[in-house]
Each structure stands twice: as structure tokens, then as C-alpha cells.
Design brief:
Helix content is about 0%, strand content about 45%. The protein has about 375 residues and is mostly beta strands.
């Protein structure tokens, strides 16, 4: 597996001049001599490398060199790291709750586990799905990984042993999305093209609840207390389901095309949605809200003819929101002012999933170009 730091350090080597005769013993130059190239000429190069190694201070030796340039803000080996190894489009990627490991999966039907820091080695590959893996998530304690696939299955994996623990059967169509409960019992919610939303206790093989939708479900999320489910799909609306009544509690309208991703805010009071109408929106999902639940809209991220289920996410402190985009960029906005803070290029295909590191200013992106990027924000 290949991991490439995208910002390498360059050291300048002294140029060696060819030996020449002593200036006092030189012959007078002639017109013919002027027409020949002269040996020993050093050509100055004015362009300096983007990142140069310089002495650390007055009297510094070669052993105390530091890197010139903007100060680093993360523990990454380089400001941008490229992770290569997938043999197909990468549809999903997530940091573990502690942030020391990340998982990625996609069209090649395998889940890759990588170290976040150092050389970002790919230390494990989890085979087992017979279709593309469309989304994965971690349990809150980081001990388990959940994955859903076009093979109609939900899998539970032991993250430490790298083994499949359980297959959750029940869906009869492509399973597009999943999300793990943040607290309480080890619950998982999944949404499928079979127009059902299923809630699983991952200690058992069968669904605890099954909710019927009129259209295919493409995005799901628990609320903070795991007593409600937020879903989106082909009907363009976002529905909040009450798990006690097993019915729709309320519907939030505003998007004009398919919902492709949902992400719960760190404080559990808001939901972020991405849609094929080329907008990312923030909604208030608290029980009692006066007026419109739509709070903000963020623009810039794009969808195209590929119709990929592009995801969105929050930073750990809730101050930033981000989204993938079909135009190969990652978009990051201020969650309060909706101002675009960063537009990060680099990928050569649609950016399908994005995630913030839980403790450091590091952004993870997964793309149809079969690559993952880890980049620090400055």
C-alpha cells in the first residue's frame, strides 16, 4: 500500500565547479574562445523551493535544522498525506473515536484500516462483502466497525481482531446508509432501497424495529439520545421518526432533490443534510421549535450525473461544517456565518465522503479517484 506525503522537503546541494587554470596563467582570450562554453561557471537559480531547510538560529549547526514555512498545526508527518491502495472508487471513510485509526471502503468490497499518524500504514484489510461498501461507522468505544453494502447485508466487525463478528440480515435491497448510536445499547440504524429503515441491536442477528418509507432511503442518523431516527431519501424531505411510537414525528421540507447524507451535530440538537439540489442545510431537531426548523444553507458543493451519495460532516467543536463535492473539491464553511472558509483541491474524482479528526485539525476525504487525503487546516 502506498502512502505519499504531498509536501516533501528539499535540500540544496552545492554545485561543483570544474577545475580551471590559475587566473594569472591564463592566455588572452580570442574571438573563438568567446564562442565556446566556459567551464566552471555557476548559474544562479533564483527560484527557491517551497519548503526549505535553514539553520535554526545564530551559530546553528547542520544538526539543528528546522523547516522554514508556515507553522504546523497537526501531528501528521506532512501537511497533506495521500493514502493509496484501494482498487476502486472509495465511497466511505471514518476516523475511529480516538482518531488513531481510520477505516475506508468502497467499490472494491474491502474495508481498509490505516494508521492516522506516522507513515499512515495500511495495517489490515477486511474482506467479506460481495458488493460495494457504501457506508461504514464505528461504535462509540472504537471496538467495532459497522458496514453496509449493495449486497443487502450489514456487517459487524471486531476492529482489533480484524474479523467479522456478525451478519445482520433483513434488507431485500441495496443498503445505502448506516449510523451507530452515540450512547446506550449498541444500536445501529440502516436505510435501504427496499424502502425500509431498520434498527439493530448489534448483539443479535435480527432487526429490533423496521420502519416503512414510501421511497428509497439514502441517508439515516440517530439523534443524540438514540430514541429518534432522522432519515432522507428520494422524496427530498427529511423525516424524524419516534422509536417509541414507530411513526413519523415531524417532516422537514426545503430540499428539492434526493438527500445524499446526514450528520448529527456534536451537541445533538442539529442535523446537517446534503442534497442533489447542490445545497447543504442545517436543521433544528429539538422537540419544541417555534417557526421553521431550517436554520442555515451552505452553497458551493456540487453533484453531477454520477449521482453519488456524497456525505457531509461537522468538526468536533461544531464550528465548521464540510462536504464532499462532485467537482473534486472539499468545501468547509463556518457553521455560524455560513462563510466558505476553505475549498480544498487535490482529488481527481468526485469526493464522496469527508470526516473531521476528533481532536486535531485534520480533514479526511475519500474519492472516486481511489485515493484518500489527510490534510491539516491552518
Amino acid at each position: 500500500r502506498c502512502v505519499t506525503p504531498c509536501n516533501t522537503l528539499h535540500t540544496s546541494r552545492p554545485l561543483k565547479a570544474h577545475s580551471t587554470q590559475d587566473t594569472n596563467s591564463r592566455k588572452p582570450t580570442t574571438m573563438a574562445d568567446n564562442k565556446r562554453p566556459q567551464d566552471g561557471v555557476l548559474v544562479p537559480v533564483n527560484k527557491r523551493p517551497r519548503q526549505e531547510i535553514v539553520p535554526a538560529g545564530p551559530g546553528a549547526s547542520v544538526l539543528s535544522l528546522v523547516t522554514a514555512g508556515p507553522p504546523r498545526t497537526s501531528s501528521l508527518l506532512a501537511p497533506v498525506m495521500q493514502l493509496s491502495g484501494h482498487e476502486g472508487e472509495v465511497f466511505t471513510a471514518r476516523f475511529s473515536p480516538k482518531g488513531n485509526v481510520l477505516a475506508s471502503a468502497g467499490f472494491d468490497r474491502q474495508i481498509f484500516l490505516w494508521n492516522t499518524l506516522g507513515d499512515c500504514e495500511n495495517f489490515s484489510v477486511l474482506p467479506g462483502h460481495t458488493g460495494a461498501v457504501l457506508q461504514l461507522d464505528w461504535s462509540p468505544d472504537g471496538s467495532s466497525i459497522y458496514s453496509v453494502s449493495s449486497d443487502q447485508n450489514c456487517f459487524v466487525w471486531d476492529a482489533e481482531a480484524g474479523l467479522r463478528v456478525r451478519r445482520l440480515r433483513g434488507h431485500t435491497g441495496i443498503v445505502n446508509a448506516c449510523n451507530a448510536a452515540r450512547q446506550g445499547d449498541p444500536l445501529l440504524v440502516s436505510g435501504s432501497d427496499d424502502r425500509t429503515i431498520k434498527v439493530w441491536d448489534t448483539r443479535n442477528r435480527h432487526a429490533v424495529h423496521s420502519l416503512n418509507s414510501k421511497f428509497q432511503v439514502t441517508a439515516v442518523s440517530f439523534n443524540g439520545r438514540a430514541d429518534q431516527i432522522v432519515s432522507g431519501g428520494l422524496e427530498n424531505d427529511i423525516k424524524v421518526w419516534d422509536l417509541r411510537k414507530l411513526d413519523v414525528l415531524f417532516t422537514m421540507k426545503g430540499h428539492t432533490d434526493t438527500i445524499t447524507g446526514l450528520s448529527l451535530s456534536p451537541n445533538g440538537t442539529q442535523i446537517l443534510s446534503n442534497s442533489m439540489d447542490n445545497s447543504v442545510r442545517m436543521w433544528d431537531i429539538q422537540p419544541f421549535v417555534a417557526g421553521n426548523r431550517l436554520q442555515k444553507a451552505f452553497y458551493g458543493a456540487q453533484h453531477n450525473f454520477e449521482k453519488n451519495l456524497i456525505k457531509c460532516a461537522w468538526s468536533a467543536d461544531g464550528k465548521l461544517v464540510l462536504s464532499g463535492s462532485a467537482d473534486r473539491n472539499v468545501y468547509i464553511w463556518n457553521s455560524v456565518t455560513t462563510e466558505l472558509q476553505y475549498c480544498l483541491p487535490g482529488h481527481k474524482g468526485s469526493v464522496n465522503d469527508v470526516h473531521f479528526h476528533p481532536t486535531e485539525p485534520i480533514v479526511l476525504s475519500a474519492s472516486s479517484d481511489k485515493k484518500l487525503f489527510l490534510g491539516e487546516l491552518v
